[in-house]
Amino acid sequence: MKKGFIFDLDGVITDTAKYHYLAWKYLAETIDIEIDIVFNEQLKGISRMDSLERILAHGNKSDAFTLSEKEALAHQKNTHYVELLQQLSPADLLPGVHEFLTEAKQKQIPCGIASASKNAPFILEKLEVADDFQIIVNPDTLKKGKPDPEIFLKAAEMLHITPEEAVAFEDAQAGLDAIKAAGMYAVGVLSGEALHGADILVHRLDELSIETLLAT
Ligand code: BG6
Ligand code: MG
């Protein structure tokens, strides 16, 4: 029997990948690096600084900046990203998410967020779903990012459930690998790229039956 749901945010609850992409692409251009939408797939689920490192490596500029310059670049990207997020509203919830969260609430199934994003609380407020989640893991408290299982294990601990009692949702391969390494049941949410290792794959959350998931 499953007792709780743990969600990635970007790409599962709402589609912010397009805003991350716009902000990174703009930032990369200021340092003469070109990225495209295919390259952007590699950044899904990866922390802000790790994303910057991948972009610098892509442009053969891994050693071109000091740590404080890199922090300034990441900050610049985030300022632009947060500007883009201002337009988010409940209409930006991905299809089926509102219905799924409403039913989970009715059934008193605790829900948590395991996202690498430091902007998660702000995004949940804009989407008007902050109250639907009992816990949000603060990525600043973690030693390792996805695909390490730490963030999902921490979410389960905060929800007072075991990993075996958790169903976790991810749209990125790094996140799915983290869920499986945590020993949890994995729902892969497809948004284009193929995903490997999920226990079940869906395009939208309303393809799932909560009853069936809980009985898994
Ligand atoms: C993840 C996204 O959810 O959060 C990544 O998939 C992003 O693309 C990461 O880099 C960190 O987000 P933020 O908002 O802290 O820069
Ligand atoms: Mg994601």
From TrEMBL:
Instruction: Report the subcellular localization.
Output: Cytoplasm
Source superkingdom: Bacteria
InterPro entries listed in its UniProt record: B-phosphoglucomutase_hydrolase, Beta-PGM, HAD-like_sf, HAD-like_SPP, HAD-SF_hydro_IA, HAD_sf, PGP-like_dom2
Report the sequence similarity comment from the record.
Belongs to the HAD-like hydrolase superfamily. CbbY/CbbZ/Gph/YieH family.
> Where is it mainly found?
cytoplasm
Of the GO CC terms on this record, one is:
cytoplasm
Q: Which residues form the active site?
A: D8 (nucleophile), D10 (proton donor/acceptor)
Identify the residues that bind Mg(2+): D8, D10, E170, D171
* GO terms (BP aspect): carbohydrate metabolic process
Per the record's keyword annotation, is Nucleus included, yes or no? no
One Pfam match, given by its short name, reads: Hydrolase
* Transmembrane parts of this sequence: none
Explain how, and how many, cofactor molecules are bound: Binds 2 magnesium ions per subunit.
- Which species is this UniProt entry from? Enterococcus alcedinis
Sorted alphabetically, the keyword list is: Carbohydrate metabolism, Cytoplasm, Isomerase, Magnesium, Metal-binding, Phosphoprotein
| Cofactors (names) | Mg(2+)
Q: What is the lineage of its organism?
A: Bacteria, Bacillati, Bacillota, Bacilli, Lactobacillales
Q: What class of enzyme is it?
A: isomerase
Catalysed reactions listed for this entry: beta-D-glucose 1-phosphate = beta-D-glucose 6-phosphate
- SUPFAM superfamilies to which the protein is assigned, alphabetical: HAD-like
Question: Annotated site (Important for catalytic activity and assists the phosphoryl transfer reaction to Asp8 by balancing charge and orienting the reacting groups), which positions?
Answer: S115, K146
Gene Ontology molecular functions: beta-phosphoglucomutase activity; magnesium ion binding; sugar-phosphatase activity
The protein depicted here goes by the name Beta-phosphoglucomutase
Q: Which residues bind substrate?
A: 8-10, 24, 43-48, 51, 77, 115-119, 146
E.C. number(s) listed in UniProt: 5.4.2.6
